[in-house]
């Protein structure tokens, strides 16, 4: 029996567990009468009222809120807020496994939240800490007044960053508290999910999936 055949039961169990969690839906913006929705960590999609995408039915759209329905459960998704879980076990944060699919370029990206504010992560095993740009930190309302300044090496040379501790970092049903992070002065398209978060997990890659099982 080949390795791929041996992996099928494990992957099936993973998919079943993901289905039990339900749909995670976040609103990242709007385009006229359509909402930009991120469903289960995928790419943002413009969806108008009356349309259904991946089992998520959009009932109404405003510039700051979208009302959606999954399996008869109706919820309001606020712009920039933490992803809303529908059709599963609700907003529980007791999960212990994260499963991410590889995206273009071989990277692993995830929709999640920091201190309850929605954001996009990019897994970076070479980064010591979670890292985010100053503009993103300000959008999330992170307080840098008491942050410790630190010199860091970037692709553009040495720069001054600020070291802070995030109250929570959440992806899907998994929430980690007290995560060290660096806020850098330049803008970044993603929040880098570095080892201050990843070290709390056992990581393994299964074909095009990255599986993170929580250790502590």
Name some characteristics of this structure.
single chain, 216 residues, mainly beta, SH3 type barrels, Cathepsin D, subunit A, domain 1, 18 strands, 13% helix, globular, disordered N terminus, TIGR02281 family clan AA aspartic protease, protease
Written overview of the protein:
This protein has 216 residues and is mainly β. The chain folds into two domains: 24-81, SH3 type barrels (Roll); 97-214, Cathepsin D, subunit A, domain 1. Helices cover 13% and strands 52% of the residues. It is built from three helices and 18 strands. The protein has helices at residues 3-21, 134-139, 195-198; strands spanning 23-31, 34-39, 45-48, 52-53, 56-61, 65-70, 73-78, 84-86, 97-101, 109-114, 117-123, 130-133, 148-154, 157-171, 174-184, 191-193, 201-206, 209-214. Strands 10, 11, 12, 13, 14, 15 and 16 form a seven-stranded mixed beta sheet that branches. Strands 3-2-1-8 form a four-stranded antiparallel beta sheet, with no helix packed on it. A hairpin with a 5-residue loop joins β2 (34-39) and β3. The longest helix has 19 residues, at 3-21. The protein is globular and about 50 Å long. It starts with a helix and ends with a strand.
